[in-house]
């Protein structure tokens, strides 16, 4: 509270001294606390990309979220093998994760004032990176004077 003693003067030059008190509310003074602005968290994160990946190969996912106040958003993850740069997540899995137990990518959006969205997850089936192999054998005999021709056949998957 501040006590004021202003001298008031009218257009004719007549003045009077008037005392009054001024109470300031919401300005951080001792009589009240400063008002706080509300800050809503960004909306749900959208993770766009393939739901399959291959071990030791990077898959790219685009991230998006909208903040109700228009604040800048940053994305974060704790998923092993995942990194984020801006709104792009790169996932490079190191272990196979079948459909019965897919890898889970988890992302959180945080606005510039610290409000965070709930974690958004995406399931990714991770297959092994299997090298191609030949599934046929070249001819083992031929005739003298004739050209020998062979077209190899290849396959993927388990060798057997």
Brief characterization of the structure:
With 160 residues, the protein is mainly β. It is 0% helix and 36% strand. It folds into 2 domains: 1-34, no CATH class; 46-127, Sandwich (Immunoglobulin-like).
Topology:
Blueprint: E1 2-4, E2 7-9, E3 15-17, E4 20-22, E5 46-48, E6 52-54, E7 59-64, E8 73-76, E9 82-85, E10 88-91, E11 103-111, E12 120-127, E13 133-134, E14 154-155
Parallel strand pairs: 6-12
Antiparallel strand pairs: 1-4, 2-3, 5-7, 7-10, 8-11, 9-10, 11-12, 13-14
Give an overview in words.
The protein folds into two domains: about 1-35, no CATH class; about 45-125, Immunoglobulins (Immunoglobulin-like), CATH 2.60.40.10. The mean pLDDT is about 80. The radius of gyration is 35 Å and the shape is rod-shaped. With about 160 residues, it is mostly beta strands. The termini are far apart. The chain has a four-stranded antiparallel sheet, with no helix packed on it. Strands 6-12-11-8 form a four-stranded mixed sheet, with no helix packed on it. Helix content is about 0%, strand content about 35%.
């Amino acid at each position: 509270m501040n006590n004021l003693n202003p001298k008031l003067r009218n257009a004719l030059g007549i003045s009077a001294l008037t005392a009054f008190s001024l109470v300031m509310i919401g300005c951080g003074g001792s009589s009240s606390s400063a008002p706080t602005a509300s800050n809503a968290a960004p909306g749900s994160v959208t993770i766009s990309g393939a739901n399959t990946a291959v071990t030791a190969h990077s898959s790219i996912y685009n991230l998006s979220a909208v903040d109700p106040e228009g604040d800048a958003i940053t994305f974060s993850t704790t998923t092993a093998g995942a990194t984020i740069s801006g709104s792009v997540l790169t996932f490079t899995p190191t272990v196979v994760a079948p459909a019965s137990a897919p890898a889970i990518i988890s992302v959180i959006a945080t606005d510039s004032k610290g409000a965070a969205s709930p974690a958004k997850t995406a399931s990714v089936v991770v297959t092994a990176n299997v090298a191609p192999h030949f599934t046929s054998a070249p001819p083992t005999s031929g005739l003298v004077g004739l050209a020998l021709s062979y077209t190899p056949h290849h396959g993927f998957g388990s060798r057997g």
